[in-house]
Amino acid sequence: MASSVPRKSSVDVQGLLEQLTLQEKMSLLAGNGLWYTAAVARLGIPSVKVTDGPNGARGELFTAGTKAACFPAAVSIAATWDTGLAQRIGKAMAEETKTKGASVLLGPTVCPHRSPLGGRNFESFSEDPLLAGLQAASVIQGLQENGIAATVKHFAANEQETMRNTINVVVGERALREIYLKPFEIAIKKAQPLALMTSYNKVNGVHADQNEHLVKEILRDQWGYNGLVMSDYGGTNSLEDTIKVGVDLEMPGPPQHRRLAAVEKALEAGTLDMASINDRVRSVLQLVKNVGKFEHPEQVAETAINDPAHQRLIREAGADGIVLLKNEGGVLPLQTAKLGSIAVLGQSKTCFSNGGGSANLNAHYKITPYEALQKAVGETVDLRYATGAHIHRKLPCWTAGVTDGKGQPGWTIKEYMFAAKDKGFSDGLQPQRTYAFPLTTYMAIEHVPDAIRLEGTFTPTSTGAHYFSLPALGHAKLFIDDELVFDAGPSPDPRGYSEGGEFEIRKQHDFVQGETYRLRVEVLAPSAEQAMIPLMAGRIMFHLGFMEQKDYEEDLIANAVAAAKDADVALVFVGNSAEWETEGHDAANMSLPANGSQDRLVEAVAAVNPRTVVVNCTGVPVAMPWIDSVAGLLQCWFAGQEAGNAIVDVLLGVVSPSGRLPVSFPRSLEDTPSYGNFPGDLATVTVHYAEGIEVGYRHYDKHPEKVLFPFGAGLSYTTFEFGPAVISPQELVHGGVVTVQLQVKNTGAVAGKEVVQVYLAPPQLESGSDRPVRPAKVLAGFAKVEVAPQSSVSVTVEIFFESAAFWDTAAACWGVDSGEYAVLIGNSSASCTDHGSLTVKESFTFGP
Ligand code: BGC
């Protein structure tokens, strides 16, 4: 079952370890900069490169880096319910990682979705630990079978971004084991990821990276994990404890905690021992060996290879993850031969390829739905476009009408190093580096100038009090014709930049059409106090946003309504851009951004066109106040660089939709199990996982009225029938596997794929029983099959004995109680029906 294929290497790790000096050992236990482990040239120990992230290999630069393939987000992969496809994506991501000269990919992310507000949910698979664990295992297998180490992350209980570095997650042992650790356990036991990343947060009072219970007892001792454990970036919180519990690598370097002088002191004082250091070093050397770096020590330059096979795979996977949630009167697929006009509204000229933060990368290209639709039917059908709503969180980059020093479109950026940190700009100070800069978003993470200047000449297309904004990490100022028009202050709060612009201050300035204006932005790097997070000290980030007043204040809805009124069909594209769904930030509510603009658009369009179809691109469930007034709804997630083609393939029926929800869609935020306990109490920096194991459908099964679309749901353009199930054996024993076999018939007219979902319903407790209360059912297995029209396919799903288990907190082990377990089968958690049962004759325990 092992998916990791440590390459055959004769390198003697123990022999090397014995020759290392303490200084060399410690150099190996922290990153060398952001993306490398340290080399020890004396002993021929090469450096290993790592790269983000969960949906592709970005390479070294956070912005405008080497182009890379953008794969569907994990939630979209989960929605395919296709483990083979997930594995093929893993393989392609391995190929991409190699083009970035890296041997370790910092993904997949597997933490369960706890609340629809979670900013990083899109990066992660599902609310259900089995679906998440199996899809993650498949991605890991695909990566590692192709020579790239996977990094499963963030261990553990990292279900929110709010105060992510400090929040204390208070979670019971049962929920921890059954829900939050389970995807890690499944992925680790099935696919043995060569690396794991700890999370930033505390779990029950102790930061994850120094949490003995999590890292030592559970991960290392109980699960026997012997891969490399690294901290999240800036997420190493001490010297001794992290080394002792088993965190091998402090990321990034230079170390904040693992400094030689401190280590020598700790060794002398006896608070740290050499055996622990040696264990950590052994792990790092083993990773270097496992990824074959001793045999190929050379550093490989980053390249951009736009592989047609990857393009096809991303399109196929994106389409297979799309979930058709509503299709009244068969409005979909679009019968384009019979359609004269389609209103193409909303964000149809945006490709919602990915979420923000470390999932971001410079995609080879991005196909928008509008482009894809135009290519497919633009010659024969009248496409009527209107944006209909602004959804900016930050004003867009200030690019239109701007030229640089050479008269070319874009800006010039100059990076400065000061003679001394407190000197500032002095007369005659020359920039260290000057280069053309196309956009107005800047992040100096990899190299750290003391200050930057951004210069350009701007000619507006209209007269007005135009809007601009300048969120920054650092002290930012905007000058127009050398006059200071905005001083953002020393920016003590980096969230203005890194949390996507929630703190963006919008200002207005008068401009006259056709006049030219000399623009200059200056930003000074923040001190440690100004940056708030030590890792961010000295690193400049800023975004210069701009909109002309006429565009900012235009009545977009009226245009969209006019386009929709007599169109044969109205497609309204809505979603969360990467500014809204991103690392570093949780949503404040479940509504689409911004300030209701997209909901108002859908409502206005649906009011004039009964054939309105909403195409939603979000990584999470959103509030749908208009659901009863639209005819169709597609949930498309973030489908990668081919999102436009994938969506249009489904809209036109080239692909019959086969995605099924990997998360329940609640009716409202108040209906969610974590409501009132997300993101927790910010005054005490504590979040209580008070709902225990009642996460997702484990909660909604008890409250069906609270769910709009249940876990596992999704329609198709064809229809399927499930035959009777043959369950064998019918007894479940410790270590046992049961197979469930049945026929799936495609009873419709077109080919399609169906997901067979098998749930196990534990025996109901007698009243007065003191046994732990179990969920009504849990997902125990699934399979996806393609079936030709009017044909049948035999499907076999395996149920492992662990699916019947619960965490027995009193006994501190897993338990399976005797009794009858119903086997429920269907194509959603709500529609599955009784197909037989399994008997556990005698209760048993196992583990931990
Ligand atoms: C994220 C990690 C990521 C790392 C490097 C951290 O802030 O939490 O997921 O791999 O940065 O970019």
From TrEMBL:
Residues 406-561 form the PA14 domain. It is an enzyme of class 3 (hydrolase). Belongs to the glycosyl hydrolase 3 family. Keywords: Carbohydrate metabolism, Glycoprotein, Glycosidase, Hydrolase, Polysaccharide degradation. Pathway: Glycan metabolism; cellulose degradation. PANTHER family: BETA-GLUCOSIDASE, BETA-GLUCOSIDASE B-RELATED. It catalyses: Hydrolysis of terminal, non-reducing beta-D-glucosyl residues with release of beta-D-glucose. Its EC number is 3.2.1.21. It comes from the Eukaryota. The lineage of its organism: Eukaryota, Fungi, Dikarya, Ascomycota, Pezizomycotina. This is beta-glucosidase.
